[in-house]
Amino acid sequence: MYFLVMKMRSSRNILPLLSTMIQRTCKFSALPELTKDRYPNVKRGNYSQIDTKHLNFFKDLLGETRVITDENECLGYNTDWIKANRGYSRCVLKPKSTDEVAAILKFCNENLLAVCPQGGNTGLVGGSVPVFDEIVLSTSLMNRIISLDETSGVLTCEAGCILENLEKYLDEHRLIMPLDLGAKGSCQIGGNVSTNAGGLRLLRYGNLQGTVLGLEAVTANGQILDCMSTLKKDNTGFHLKHLFIGSEGSLGLVTKVSIQCPPKPKAVNLAFLGLESFDKILMVFKRCKHELGEILSSCEAIDADSLAATTDNLNLKSPLEKFPFYMVIETHGSDNGHDEEKLNRFLSSLMEDGTVEDGIATNEPSKMNAVWQLRERITEGLIHDGYVFKYDLSLPLENFYSLVGIMKERVGKDAVRVSGYGHVGDGNVHLNVAVKEFSADVLNKIEPFIYEYTSKLRGSISAEHGIGFRKTKYMHYSKSKEAIDLMKSIKKMMDPKGILNPYKVLPQ
Ligand code: FAD
Ligand code: MLT
Ligand code: ZN
Fold first, then answer.
1. Which of 63, 270, 350, 390 could cross-link with 356 by S-S, CB 3.0 to 4.6 Å?
2. 181 alpha carbon to ligand 2 midpoint, in Å?
3. Nearest atom of ligand 1 to the alpha carbon of 82
4. What CATH number has the domain spanning 265-379?
5. What is the mean pLDDT of the chain?
6. Residues spanned by CATH 3.30.465.10 within the chain?
7. 10 Å Cβ neighbour count for 344?
């Protein structure tokens, strides 16, 4: 058993571009069945079929190169990251400005053409790809940084900026983005806002409902809604930005964002711990809130099967022997001597009383990066098993891990792996059932049971990934009929023809 504390040289290296990872993954994964065939009960709405007249309009507006119609080129935009959903759109539009988005949506609304907004296409619930032949509206060319106020830390930028690029830009100004996730190399800030993404440091920096100060969005009829406040406090009327934060492209297309960015921490320290039981994880979490206090920036849990998905499938090396559970604890502070000493004192006491069996502590960027890869790349590692049934639940902490054992019994040998990991500091578990290939029988063993279980414990059936396409019929397990009816009324009012991301978010 050992704790190793090294001198920090510079900030943590940014993880390898996820886009490269996605390309690698795509090469060996078979294409998923078309969504319309896998889910035959979902019927295409009465939308227009795209024709030459429509395409000519888009080409006049955007030019030939920003209207993609080639089947092969469209494939990546039709297929989601975890290879669970596939549409068959033959039209991908790539606007470069809010005015172009407005003109597209106005035309689509008038011509009853359905639209699927898409950012980095890293969403995990099937919301970012068409179900049938919806037009894909990609924000990837709307990627300008507009301004940064270094005093207030407020960044304004277009929706298509890739999260990792924003991080790199802010790094030069000694600031960071308030969110960080494994998909940072591909996901876009507009997608993050539209999913209200959580990530690895929500417990320290809060969620996007708080850190997004303002946004610009285009509604279904092409109207541009300017809510681009850069103020921290603004209680004038309804907070309309919240209609778009987390509504997954069903109420409008987010085109610009202003966001509060925290200062870059001068000191970053990280511990990777091995533990014998989940109860001990909870003990560590409770204690680290008190003993690390204001410097705690992340508290993540990983079980043995999740870690094995990265060590076995991606050949990553763990610095620890095998344990049933692991934790990643990170601190962000302003005085390395103070933080290092505080973390070491905390870890020593955990070792002395036997709460933790083994661990490493480091502030060396390459070592911290290696540990973060073990955590962040679990999603990718699991895909190598075949097909992944993915669940993202908020549960009371005492029940955080209980479903993993229950699910192992339910699916038995049908699964290659049943694993649990996630943001224990936020009460958000990621339960994954990996199988060789999609199987409706396995699906029926998991759903709706998993949602009934979560509902009985008053948890949430989607903590951070959203509802997308795959969870719409389960919304009632987390929301009352009255709440769902109000959501439907808001949708009807803002998008009466239902052209924005149909078949997603709300139950049909
Ligand atoms: P997309 O996948 O393109 O779209 C997501 C949804 O938002 C879709 O419904 C889409 O229609 C809509 N949308 C996209 N852009 C816009 C826009 N400009 N206006 C309106 N609607 C829009 N999520 C977390 O919360 N926490 C994590 O820790 C996390 N880690 C991940 C790790 C990996 C390896 C992967 C693959 C995914 C992870 N995710 C995580 C899920 C995903 O990355 C997030 O949901 C992310 O915010 C999606 O951003 P995107 O740009 O890829 O959006
Ligand atoms: C994570 O925390 O790693 C993400 O939410 C992705 C996942 O659930 O696999
Ligand atoms: Zn997560």
1. 350
2. 8
3. 36
4. 3.30.70.2190
5. 94
6. 145-260
7. 15
Q: Residue 296's beta-bridge partner residues?
A: 331
pTM above 0.90, yes or no: yes
Among the bound ligands, name the one nearest to the CA of residue 179: 1
Report the atom number in ligand 2 closest to the C-alpha of 198. 5
Portions of the chain given CATH number 3.30.43.10 = 35-138
What gap in Å lies between CA 49 and CA 111, rounded to an integer?
10
Architecture category of domain 385-465 in CATH: 2-Layer Sandwich (3.30)
- The verdict on domain 35-138 having CATH code 3.40.50.1110 is no
The domain defined by 145-260 carries CATH number 3.40.640.10: no
> How many other CB atoms are there within 10 angstroms of residue 4's CB atom?
11
Q: Which atom of ligand 2 is nearest to the CA of 464?
A: 5
pLDDT of 489 above 70: yes
Tell me, what's the pLDDT at 10? Answer: 28
> What distance in angstroms lies between residue 464's CA and the mean position of ligand 1's atoms?
10
Our measurement of the distance from residue 392's CA atom to the centroid of its chain's CA atoms, rounded to an integer in Å, reads 10
Residue 445 has pLDDT above 70, yes or no: yes
Give span(s): CATH 3.30.70.2190, the chain. Answer: 265-379
Which ligand gives the minimal distance to the CA of 380?
1
Spatial separation of the C-alpha atoms in residues 244 and 217, rounded to whole Å:
8
Query: Which of 118, 245, 256, 505 for mutating ligand 1's site (highest number of atoms within 8 Å of CB)?
Result: 118
Ligand 1 atom nearest 159 alpha carbon: 18
Centroid of ligand 1 to alpha carbon of 120 (angstroms): 7
Burial (CB count within 10 angstroms: exposed 0-12, middle 13-18, buried 19+), residue 221: middle
Nearest bound ligand to CA 125?
Answer: 1
C-beta 379 within 6 A of ligand 2: yes
pLDDT score, position 421? 98
Ligand 2 atom 7 nearest Cα: 379
Count Cα atoms within 13 angstroms, Cβ side, for 502: 22
Q: Tell me which residue has its CA closest to atom 42 in ligand 1.
A: 123
Is residue 496 packed enough to be buried (19+ CB in 10 Å), middle (13-18) or exposed (0-12)?
Answer: exposed
Q: What is the DSSP string of 284-316?
A: HHHHHHHHTGGGEEEEEEEEHHHHHHHHHHS-P
Query: Atom of ligand 2 at shortest distance to CA of 422?
Result: 2
Q: What is the predicted pLDDT for the residue at 21? A: 40
- Residue 30 has a pLDDT of 82
Tell me: pLDDT of 4 over 80: no
